[in-house]
């Protein structure tokens, strides 16, 4: 596979793997570089199911967004949205609520460029350049404020994102999100786990991500559950993502379980 256009903008670092571009490659996309593909190859040695897990993760996103929309949520913030792919959040939400509004949030320059190009003519979507580690910047971004009414319920997505936070960062970030959201808001997240996996495999994957700007943290079930403090988990709670309201149209789940997922509500 050839690299992207050689006229690469100066703000795109092709010397280090990017989490967004690695995820794009997991899903079979073309918006990635040799450094990203090499990193994925190393992850795949320890986690052979990684491509199927990425598809499972997208399937969880689809189910979570549909669930929120069916609860009457009409506006969403997709934090760490990644590169556009089939079944984007606005497409899923608008299949239930045609005028649903979605703000995509990411800090990767390729994600921002592709997202804005794709959604330029969609009045109910915005692409905001912000970092989840600065939740005030996410919530107060002009594009967020233009589209999101924080006096009404909001659906917040942190799909495959919380495992890039330290436990110290968790409290402030999740607390800020909770305080900003109206009652009836929902939050959905998925998170990698070390439960049931060898230390060697986990450490190998962590070493790959340590070479990116975003190290990854594998955690046990009880640690992952703390990301939902103060929220009320929606049935069936925090489970492996294949067990959260499975849909017969989803891809067959991987035999090895690496991801927990949940949807939770602010009452």
Automatic annotation (TrEMBL):
Keywords: Methyltransferase, Transferase. This is SAM-dependent methyltransferase. InterPro entries: SAM-dependent_MTases_sf, SAM_dep_MeTrfase_SAV2177_type. Transmembrane segments: none annotated. The keyword Zinc does not apply. It comes from the Bacteria. The keyword Isomerase does not apply. GO terms for molecular function: methyltransferase activity. Its EC number is 2.1.1.-.
């Amino acid at each position: 596979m050839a690299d992207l256009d050689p006229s690469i903008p100066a703000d795109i670092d092709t010397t280090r793997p990017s989490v967004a571009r690695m995820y794009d490659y997991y899903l079979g996309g073309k918006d990635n570089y040799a450094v990203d593909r090499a990193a994925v190859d190393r992850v795949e040695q320890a986690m052979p199911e990684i491509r199927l897990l990425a598809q499972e993760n997208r399937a969880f996103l689809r189910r979570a967004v549909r669930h929120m929309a069916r609860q009457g949520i009409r506006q969403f913030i997709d934090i760490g949205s990644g590169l556009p792919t089939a079944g984007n959040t606005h497409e899923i939400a608008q299949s239930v609520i045609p005028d649903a509004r979605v703000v995509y949030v990411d800090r990767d320059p390729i994600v921002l460029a592709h997202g804005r190009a794709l959604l330029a003519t969609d009045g109910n979507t915005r692409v905001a350049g912000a970092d989840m580690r600065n939740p005030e910047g996410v919530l107060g971004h002009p594009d967020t404020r233009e589209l999101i009414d924080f006096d009404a319920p909001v659906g917040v997505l942190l799909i495959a994102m919380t495992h890039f936070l330290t436990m110290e960062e968790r409290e402030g970030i999740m607390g800020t999100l909770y305080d900003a959201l109206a009652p009836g808001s929902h939050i959905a997240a998925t998170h990698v786990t070390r439960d049931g996996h060898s230390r060697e495999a986990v450490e190998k994957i962590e070493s790959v991500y340590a070479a990116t700007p975003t190290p990854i943290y594998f955690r046990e079930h009880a640690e992952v559950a703390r990301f939902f403090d103060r929220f009320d988990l929606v049935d069936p709670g925090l489970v492996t993502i294949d067990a959260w309201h499975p849909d017969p149209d989803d891809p067959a789940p991987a035999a090895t379980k690496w991801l927990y997922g949940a949807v939770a509500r602010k009452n």
